[in-house]
Amino acid sequence: MAEGEQNSSSGAVPGSRSSTTPLSTSQPFIQSWTALAGVSILKGQAAPALAVRAEGPFDFSAELGGTLPHPVAGYASAESLGNADHTESFAETHVALLHPLYGTGRLEINIGAGISFGVVSDRLDETAPPPTSYRDRKFLPGPLVMLGASYPLTDHLSVFTDLSYVDYINHISYGLQTFNLTFSGVMIRPGVEWRF
After folding, report:
1. Which of the two residues, 12 and 64, has the higher pLDDT score?
2. CB count in 10 Å sphere of residue 72
């Protein structure tokens, strides 16, 4: 065999993956981290929202985030003879898996799904004398479906807007009565993100 043929068969081709190089050294499982900050708006009421996103292989990203606790009105309410119940505060945390759906130029659209945990505080008021109030705090798991768009301003900074559908089944029992405080809606989350 000629010397030139030996060099071409034994040498690694530039840009190719060498058979002797482990995949883990050239392709880390977590390729980048992104921090997100914005405002979460559900049923017309806003609160600060924070999240962190890890980009993995095959363009998939995992997000852990949530909405800070805040008082709410009009989320859910129920009444019966002598009693009135309503949701008075809400917070949320979620885990989701995302993947790019479409990209054109600098704009990128993502789709994702996961699970959301609503942290709600319900208040029950007895209108019959003597007036009495009770509060019940609980964690409510529910589905999360996300659709978002991001636009980079620099190599690290981007603006984004997400739409997330959530649905929380919430029942509260008092005595022989059961109140249905289930609610659902689309959370709008505009904000900025920083990629490390």
Report:
1. 64
2. 21
- Cα–Cα distance, 40 to 164 (Å, whole number): 10
Pairing mode, if any, of strands 107-126 and 171-174? unpaired
Does the predicted TM-score (pTM) go above 0.70?
A: yes
pLDDT for the residue numbered 100 = 93
Count of domains observed in the chain: 1
Q: What percentage of the chain has pLDDT greater than the value 70?
A: 86
Q: What is the pLDDT of residues 139-195, one digit of tens each?
A: 999 999 999 999 999 989 999 999 999 999 998 877 777 888 899 999 999 999 999
Q: Is residue 23 part of a domain?
A: no
* Residue 181 placed within a domain: yes
CATH code of the domain containing 53: 2.40.160.20
Question: Whole-angstrom Cα distance, residue 61 to residue 53?
Answer: 7
Residue 78: inside a domain:
yes
What domain range is 173 assigned to? 28-195
Neighbouring residues of 153: CB distance < 8 A, sequence distance ≥ 6: 159
**What is each CA distance from 189 to 32, 44, 51, 67, in whole angstroms?**
22, 12, 11, 10
Phi, psi angles (nearest 5°) of residue 105 = 65, -120
